[in-house]
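# nightly structure sweep
# worker-07 picked up a monomer target from the shared queue
# config: single-sequence mode, recycle default, output format = structure tokens
# input follows
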Amino acid sequence: MHEAGATSTIPGGSPDAEEAYGAINNGDYAAIVYPAWYTSRFVDYMSDLEGDIAIAPAPTMEGGEVATIGGGGTGTAVLGNSPDRELAADWLAFAKLSPEANVAVWEVLGFDPVNMSVWEDQEVTHAEDNKFNQYFQTNLFDVLNEVKGDIGHFEGFTNPAWPDVDTVFTTVTLNEVIENGVPAKQALNDAQSQLENQLGQ
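# output follows
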């Protein structure tokens, strides 16, 4: 696909880079596969595309275990030695999990709320005055509700090897396959060996 010109790397190395916003806004890319929080990037940085962008489920392979991994988000923690750790933990639970805060996460930030009960609130998810709903041709929550029964592998994000796996895959393996033409199976085997050595397995 890459050799045929159907896929390519993106300026800045990531769709979430200043150089990429300009390229996408110019119409240089027909599609990107990225988490739902990326809606905010379109609204904030690619205003020329308003009304031209549709949100759809990511492609899946036949026989795949999941439709999406539910990845992304901002990790937040309370320091164990904080003198106000109980108050901070209570506030953090409200800010990250409560329905009220999750409505604000969507309405202000354009991020998909982690509290999935918000996904069912049509007054919030289909509000006509919401700038994110106005921007896109399709509704984000229609897509999220379509795949929510097939979100998987949350446990993978708590695996201590995750940062190493992610780094090798995104900075080495994908580049080897896409830019250097290394067969995918070979690149994956090389990554496996590198990670086993790196992780002492």
